[in-house]
């Protein structure tokens, strides 16, 4: 049976786990305007970030990307990442475990 949930029902901030099953880890990220998540890495994962609302400046390594609703970014979690909310923003983030090739 599929798991069905509503992102608006999640109350934790800035990170809310979407599902109880951690694989792949799925998080609703909610940031208030001018809020930044400090630079960090997720080395065991490939990451997909989908901006749902607001405006986000996403710093990946030395590059910065201006994201708006509907934008999707996929990147290796071994890169430094730091999202910054230009305005109140919500994104869905999926951390897919890396697999051996």
From TrEMBL:
Query: Region Disordered: start and end of each range?
Result: 1-21
The record's annotation in Gene3D superfamilies points to:
Jelly Rolls
Residue ranges of domain Cupin type-2 in the record = 29-79
Q: Which residues form a coiled coil?
A: none
Q: Which domain of life is it from?
A: Archaea
SUPFAM superfamilies in the cross-refs: RmlC-like cupins (SSF51182)
List the protein's name.
Answer: Cupin domain-containing protein
What's the source species for this entry? Natrinema salaciae
